[in-house]
């Protein structure tokens, strides 16, 4: 019975399109009609009635942007302190504004106008290339971020949402789809602060060295931050539950000359890092010139005294 209903429901949409060539909005069932067959025939201009919930909408967008770049939602919040955050969480290619005109006054009309203009300035990016910059999360303590990139002119936007219970003050993201040798201006639209970096620097900041004020030390700090973030993801219960299956895949597909003792040592180091007890050290050495290149020469005698502590073969 359900199958017949769906077949005829789709036939009904086809008949409307064939007869009228009209535009169909598939708003229904709390966003449950976002299947591929329906989205071939219609768009959802109102995905869910819970548009007042910024975190819920962020979570919806994180997933739906993979397969349905054009969709719609609304933003109801008109409280001065949270209105901008909620609006940006709900900003889509089509954004409805069921604001109450009675709540707009001389004190807040500029904020309303600014958000409308913001949508006009940036909404065209929301149907372009989409790259999530964080893992999916419903937790109010987490951040969620993504990137939209217009490959036709190599411009785009990044949206980063710091949720209500987060105590985190900064994070590092790696962008995608950029031109490696193009110089980009990355600007905070709220403060006007900006930096200029090449596409290669923005996409591969872990490998970047010369742009840090403290050169290789700065690069090492970024690498540590990236590794800690990765370990935080690995330590999630869902990831840990998958470890037995991952271990079987490892055994079936990897040939190694590492002994059991070596593997146990590496596992201990990883677990130590996952607990947050992680440090980075620079091998003792000195700066030198090799032709026209500046290099760092390791002091082999001094290094030999500490390397055993960092070697699974010791």
Secondary structure topology:
Layout: H1 2-20, H2 36-41, H3 54-64, E1 72-74, H4 83-89, E2 94-96, H5 109-122, E3 129-132, E4 143-150, E5 155-162, E6 183-187, E7 194-198, H6 199-203, H7 215-234, H8 237-241, H9 243-253, H10 260-274, E8 285-290, E9 293-298, H11 300-304
Parallel strand pairs: 1-2
Antiparallel strand pairs: 3-4, 4-5, 6-7, 8-9
Helix pairs in contact: 3-4
Radius of gyration: 26 Å
Q: So what's the overall shape?
A: extended
Strand content: 15-25%
**Which secondary-structure class do the elements indicate?**
alpha+beta
Got a strand count?
9
Please state the oligomeric state of the protein chains shown: single chain
Q: Give unreliable regions as ranges.
A: 205-215
Strand order of the largest sheet: 3-4-5
Number of helices: 11
């Amino acid at each position: 019975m359900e199958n017949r209903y769906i077949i005829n429901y789709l036939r009904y949409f086809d008949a409307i399109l064939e007869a009228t060539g009209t535009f169909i909005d598939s708003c229904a069932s709390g966003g449950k009609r976002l299947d591929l067959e329906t989205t071939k025939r219609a768009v959802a201009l109102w995905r869910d009635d819970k548009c007042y919930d910024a975190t819920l909408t962020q979570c919806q967008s994180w997933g739906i942007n993979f397969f349905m770049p054009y969709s719609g939602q609304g933003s109801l919040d008109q409280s001065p302190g949270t209105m901008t955050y909620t609006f940006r969480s709900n900003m889509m290619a089509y954004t409805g504004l069921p604001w109450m005109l009675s709540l707009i006054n001389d004190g807040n009309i500029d904020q309303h106008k600014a958000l409308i203009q913001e949508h006009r300035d940036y909404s065209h990016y929301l149907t372009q290339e989409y790259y999530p910059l964080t893992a999916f999360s419903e937790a109010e303590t987490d951040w969620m971020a993504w990137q939209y990139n217009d490959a036709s002119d190599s411009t785009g936007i990044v949206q980063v949402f710091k949720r209500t219970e987060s105590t985190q003050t900064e994070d590092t993201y790696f962008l995608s789809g950029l031109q490696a040798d193009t110089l980009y201006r990355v600007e905070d639209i709220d403060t006007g602060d900006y930096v200029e970096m090449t596409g290669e620097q923005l996409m591969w900041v872990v490998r970047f060295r010369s742009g840090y004020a403290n050169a290789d030390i700065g690069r090492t700090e970024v690498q540590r931050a990236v590794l800690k973030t990765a370990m935080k993801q690995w330590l999630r219960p869902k990831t840990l539950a998958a470890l037995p299956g991952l271990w079987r895949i490892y055994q079936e597909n990897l040939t190694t000359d590492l002994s059991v003792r070596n593997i146990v040592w590496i596992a201990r180091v990883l677990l130590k890092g996952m607990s947050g007890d992680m440090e980075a050290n620079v091998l003792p050495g000195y700066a030198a010139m090799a032709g026209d290149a500046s290099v760092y020469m390791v002091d082999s005698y001094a290094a030999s005294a500490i390397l055993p502590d960092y070697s699974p073969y010791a």
